[in-house]
């Protein structure tokens, strides 16, 4: 029931076209995804660093993509929890790479972790754990 990168991109273009404007899905894996997010002036806070809300947005987005890749096009999966640990200042002159791995895929909840990096930097800028609730399947 997994979705391919092309299927996910088609779905996002139809349902969330704004999401594709600043990002590129680099890879879909059996239980994960990798995303490149293009940072611009609107993503920055004072000190030429990427803002916390932007980091959360990117983490939430790549987690959703990983879920779509693993479970298929589940439009109504919704975020129920996200926790972020900020490690170092993200470089405001570099794009972000988000690497997601699904930790637990249950019937009603999916939990994953996301590592965020300034592009071309091996040290992560943040680590996120997020949980999504899956829509209930209709009973007959």
Description of the molecule:
This protein has 140 residues and is an alpha+beta fold. The chain has a single domain, classed as Hotdog Thioesterase (Thiol Ester Dehydrase, Chain A). Helices cover 22% and strands 39% of the residues. The chain has 2 helices and 8 strands, in the order αββββαββββ. A 6-stranded antiparallel sheet has the order 1-2-6-7-8-5, covered by helices on one side. The longest helix is centred in the middle third of the chain and has 20 residues. This is Thioesterase domain-containing protein. Keywords: Membrane, Transmembrane, Transmembrane helix. GO terms for molecular function: thiolester hydrolase activity.
Layout of strands and helices, then pairs:
Layout: H1 5-15, E1 23-29, E2 32-37, E3 44-45, E4 49-50, H2 52-71, E5 78-86, E6 96-105, E7 109-118, E8 126-133
Antiparallel strand pairs: 1-2, 2-6, 3-4, 5-8, 6-7, 7-8
């Amino acid at each position: 029931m997994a979705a391919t990168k092309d299927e996910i991109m088609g779905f996002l273009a139809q349902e969330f076209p704004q999401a594709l404007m600043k990002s590129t899905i680099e890879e879909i894996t059996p239980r994960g995804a990798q995303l490149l997010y293009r940072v611009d002036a609107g993503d920055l806070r004072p000190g030429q660093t990427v803002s916390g809300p932007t980091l959360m947005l990117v983490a939430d987005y790549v987690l959703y993509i990983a879920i779509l890749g693993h479970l298929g096009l589940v439009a109504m999966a919704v975020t129920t929890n996200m926790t972020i640990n900020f490690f170092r200042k993200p470089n405001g002159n570099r794009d972000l790479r988000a690497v997601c791995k699904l930790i637990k895929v249950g019937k009603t909840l999916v939990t994953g972790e996301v590592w965020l990096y300034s592009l071309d930097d091996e040290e992560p800028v943040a680590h996120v754990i997020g949980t999504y609730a899956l829509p209930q399947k209709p009973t007959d």
